[in-house]
Specification:
Blueprint (H helix, E strand, L loop, with lengths): L3 E7 L4 E4 L1 H6 L11 H7 L5 H11 L5 E8 L5 E12 L5 E10 L1 H40 L5 H26 L5 E3 H15 L6 E7 L3 E3 H22 L6 E9 L6 H4 L14 E7 L16 H12 L3 E5 L4 E7 L5
Helix pairs in contact: 4-5, 5-6, 5-7, 6-7, 7-9
Length: 338
């Protein structure tokens, strides 16, 4: 059954009409109770009352409404309804009459919620399986690495395992988190960098400075960006810091508050200055010995920097290298998942 009731309100006489089905939706027998506006609002869920009241007030000013809200019946049962309403105005442009319909959509909404829960469970299970499969691949690489003693080859295995770990961590966060298709990237970066410092067993006097805003990213952006951070932090940990000093790696993740200032964020002559508007910036910097001027980071033999360039292009972002008292990689990007 459709469970649709209708109502009318003669504003001039303050007479109200409810159909029998509408009484039933609100948990009453026909004509059981006098219909008033206060009675109607008392049936609306307390958290929805202001929303419903504002919609009706706007309708009296000429804006029809089409809303969903919750009812609390006398027996405590909660129902979800869909209501549409409209105002008729007289020749003086004053509100003369209102009319509308109310449909009980409780079962429909509960079915939607149940299906959404099933889908969420299914997707989370997929993330869990992908994470486990990536960990198996990492374990296989570890076993394969035992066949070698050459430090360069062993380092290549380790770097590959860290790249796999950066992807596995994203799937783990999505499996554990409240959302199935986006993750809070700042929290992810905190865990990723902690894992990298642990992986390289840092005993040097290197501190980590994180300035991370709460930003949710989809999978298509988060995975490449995670690998990018993995490569840049790994590069700093391995190559940037001689012994005997205090060193620092800094990572910032920011939302560009005003898209009109995009060009001001980049230097006037930079590679990013003429690009399209971006939503976010990511900076990975260190105060180490820096990358020599003669090295072109966009055309290098370093697999890590090659990956960084490829992945920035994949997410349709923009990359700058700033050589100021160390190394600073500055990236502007959007969430291509949306």
């Amino acid at each position: 059954m459709a469970h649709i009731g209708n109502w009318e309100w003669d504003i001039a006489t303050n007479e109200r009409y409810w159909s029998d089905e509408l009484y039933s939706i609100f948990g009453f027998k026909p004509q059981e109770i006098e219909v008033t506006y206060d009675m109607f609002l008392s049936c609306v869920h307390p958290d929805d009352r202001d929303y419903v009241d504002n919609a009706i007030k706007e309708a009296l000013e000429g804006k029809p409404y089409d809303i969903n809200y919750r009812l609390i019946l006398n027996n405590g049962e909660e129902r979800i309804v869909h209501e549409q309403g409209k105002t008729i105005f007289d020749e003086k442009n004053l509100p003369a009459r209102m009319f509308g319909t109310v449909q009980d959509i409780t079962e429909h909404k509960r079915t939607e919620e149940a299906l959404a829960k099933i889908e969420e469970t299914r997707v989370k299970e997929i993330h869990h399986r992908i994470k486990n499969n990536l960990q198996v691949i990492s374990s296989l690489l570890s076993l394969e690495a035992e066949k070698f003693t050459d430090s360069i080859i062993l380092e290549s295995f380790k770097e590959s395992q860290n790249r796999i770990a950066s992807m596995a961590l994203i799937h783990e966060e999505l499996y554990k988190g409240d959302k199935i298709d986006t993750l809070e990237f700042g929290d992810y970066l905190r865990k990723l960098t902690a894992d990298l410092f642990s992986s390289y067993n840092i005993h040097k006097n290197i501190s980590l400075n994180l300035d991370l805003e709460q930003i949710y990213l989809g999978l298509d952006t988060a995975i490449p960006l995670g690998i990018i951070v993995n490569e840049l932090v790994t590069n700093s940990l391995k190559h940037a810091f001689p012994n005997g000093n205090k060193w620092e790696i800094s990572i910032s993740l920011k939302k560009i508050k005003d898209l009109g200032v995009n060009k001001e964020v980049s230097r006037a002559d930079s590679a990013c200055s003429q690009k399209k508007d971006f939503q976010y910036t990511l900076t990975v910097a260190d105060n180490g010995k820096g990358i020599p001027e003669e090295i072109n980071f966009r055309n290098t033999d370093s697999l890590g920097l090659q990956l960084v360039n490829i992945l920035v292009e994949q997410i349709e972002g923009c990359l700058e290298l700033r050589r100021n008292r160390g190394t600073e990689f500055f990236i502007k990007f959007n969430d291509i998942s949306r």
